[in-house]
Design goal:
The complex is a heterodimer of chains A (116) and B (112).
Chain A lengths: L3 E4 L2 E4 L5 E7 L6 E7 L5 E8 L5 E2 L8 E7 L2 E6 L8 E8 L7 E3 L3 E5 L1
Parallel strand pairs in A: 2-11
Antiparallel strand pairs in A: 1-3, 3-8, 4-5, 4-9, 5-6, 7-8, 9-10, 9-11
Chain B lengths: L2 E5 L2 E5 L4 E8 L3 E9 L6 E6 L5 E4 L2 E5 L3 E6 L8 E9 L8 E2 L3 E6 L1
Parallel strand pairs in B: 2-11
Antiparallel strand pairs in B: 1-3, 3-8, 4-5, 4-9, 6-7, 7-8, 9-10, 9-11
The chains are: A mainly beta (116), B mainly beta (112).
Chain lengths: 116, 112
């Protein structure tokens, strides 16, 4: 089946620094990727939709200047958490959509971000 | 506003004890109901997609069914390795494929 690779799996950073998370579709081209955020024991909340070659579409309440999304190729999307603060600590998950008949949505393994 | 409610929040079973998880939804124009399995510290793993009432899908010990108001995930003779959080999500008309509305999940624990 389709595989989505997310890196790193976990990261610890100091408050005020920026962190980049990568999401790659390994065996298919993904024109659309999605970024979710998940707090402990809570469900996934969509943050933004990332489209290859164009600007990301952010959900209401998500700061686009804090969560920078780049989708420069058909297999890679990145999420950069800028000037991270402790309240940004969370589990971030990306997903990628296959296109065509039987389109599906596959998720990466997630990145646990801890901001000290 | 689309709503997805899963019950129970947590379920403890003995190995071999069959049971069902529930996903109730209130949406405008269902375009698909999805079941995922999520292990701690991991991303969701796709299980099933159901599109219309009456549809059923099976995979090993799991069987998903759909009505106009809810979906059930039946687990037959579960094993400890089935322990995980099971998430359901809905996709509604007019939204991008990735804009799924998720339920809060059911934490399943299967004891040997």
């Amino acid at each position: 089946g389709a595989v989505v690779s997310q890196h790193p799996s976990w990261v610890i950073c100091k408050s005020g620094t920026s962190v980049k998370i990568e999401c790659r579709s390994l065996d298919f081209q993904a024109t659309t990727m999605f970024w979710y955020r998940q707090f402990p024991k809570q469900s996934l909340m969509l943050m933004a939709t990332s489209n290859e070659g164009s600007k990301a579409t952010y959900e209401q309440g998500v700061e686009k200047d804090k969560f920078l999304i780049n989708h420069a190729s058909l297999t890679l999307s990145t999420l950069t958490v800028t000037s991270a603060h402790p309240e940004d600590s969370s589990f971030y998950i990306c997903s990628a959509r296959t296109v065509g008949v039987g389109e599906k949505l596959f998720f990466g393994s997630g990145t646990q971000l801890s901001v000290l | 506003e689309d709503q997805v409610t899963q019950s129970p929040e947590a379920l403890r079973l003995q190995e071999g004890e069959s049971s069902s998880l529930n996903c109730s939804y209130t949406v405008s124009g269902l375009r698909g109901l999805f079941w995922y399995r999520q292990d701690p510290g991991k991303g969701p793993e796709f299980l099933f997609t159901l599109y219309s009432a009456g549809e059923e899908k099976e995979k090993e010990r799991l069987k998903a069914t759909l009505t106009k108001k809810e979906s059930f995930l039946h687990i037959t003779a579960p094993k400890p390795e089935d322990s995980a959080t099971y998430l359901c999500a809905v996709r509604t008309g007019g939204t991008s494929y990735g804009k799924l509305t998720f339920g809060q999940g059911t934490i399943l624990t299967v004891h040997p």
